Hints:
globular, 369 residues, single chain, alpha/beta
Amino acid sequence: MGKIRVGIVGVGNAASALVQGVYYYKNVDENINIPGIAHVRLGSYHIGDIEFSIAFDVSKEKVGKDLSEAIFSYPNITPKFADIPKLGVVVRKGKVLDGVAEHMRETFKPVDSDDDITLESIVDELKETNTNVLVNLLPVGSEEATRFYAKAALEAGVAFVNAIPVFIASDPEGYWPKLFEERNVPLLGDDVKGQIGATILHRTLVRLLHMRGVRVEETYQLNVGGNTDFLNMTVEERLKSKRISKTEAVTSILPYGKELEKEGKVRIGPSDYIPFLGNTKIAYIYIKGTSFANFPVTLEVKLTVDDKSMISGILIDAIRSAKIALDRGIGGIIVSPSAFFFKHPPVQAPDDETARHWFEEFIRGVRER
């Protein structure tokens, strides 16, 4: 089926892990099991079929550089784990909008002016580069900027993978899903769920307790890290959608999850920025429940992971899923991969049974979307 031409919005630490991940596994034997990737070949596409066609950023440190260089430019700190050749993809200036919070201006060093950047110019660039899939990796809280690039993807006929907690695929008003459906353009999202991240672990523990008859009474998840994501999220107003996304990913497992939320018995989300942690994320998960004869059950878990490598493999599968939808002429929300790969999909489903089963059926063509 050829190559998958991928565009990136936001050349930060997540983009670095994604680009490096593709090249790390570019020539891997599809008949062996490898860490981090469930499918070396997904449908017709090997990991090595992904190639990068265009990238947008607003940092003076990255605009104008080859993508292979920009992914290692300030303030990125994702460790180098793969050799990247010069890609011939020069990072282009994007639209700032709300993509740079006021407290992040010194860190992100945005361009002096973006007046020359319009929706039409972005659409033209996506078309000129024959981009198939556009991946949104902007900072948390980039509501306007995400909608801008979602619109650009829509106008260009490019599949949109929304990796951040802005509600496009899960838009409660249904505005964005309807537009992508009408234009027959694939849409996947929202807010990518890490391979073994805090959310997937928290969901699994809650599901285990519920399955074994324990009633969850209260729970929290506190996350700390030292990259720019955590610095960006020190301002609470940037976190509204993130908290909703992470909270609903966990409470959706329980039939009484909404009750716990209303009672203030659930607190989930980023908690602090600790610079010396670098790209390491540490999550503390606490769950208190009631078991047989009202005896208490308490779980306390600490998870330590590299923050961005955890999403690289997931994005590689999401990108290939988006291209499969394009090949099949399917537009609108691609429900099955969204349920499996994202924290806040349009349809929530248990990971281990329903969501994974849907995804596998989608890949085989048994399930349309």
